[in-house]
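Issue: ligand-bound run for zinc ion - logging full I/O for the record.

Environment: standard queue, default settings, no custom constraints.

Inputs:
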Amino acid sequence: MTYTPTIYCSRNNCATLATIEYSAGTVDTELRRAVACDRHRSIVRRWTSRAGTVTATPVDQPLLGQLVLFPIPEVP
Ligand SMILES: [Zn+2]
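Outputs:
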């Protein structure tokens, strides 16, 4: 199991955990990808959609146990 950093909403000054990732476009034209919390879903989706058809992917947040201050180190 690898350590996954917590993902926050990409909206300015928003400190809420992201729940969804939107992406649209291609590398050849324009690629837009952004994560959003429940509150900023619509505005982030609109921004992403300017590059093309939007694909929405749920954000995989780390399990609650990994959010503690002293995570158990991985033993190789
Ligand atoms: Zn937000």
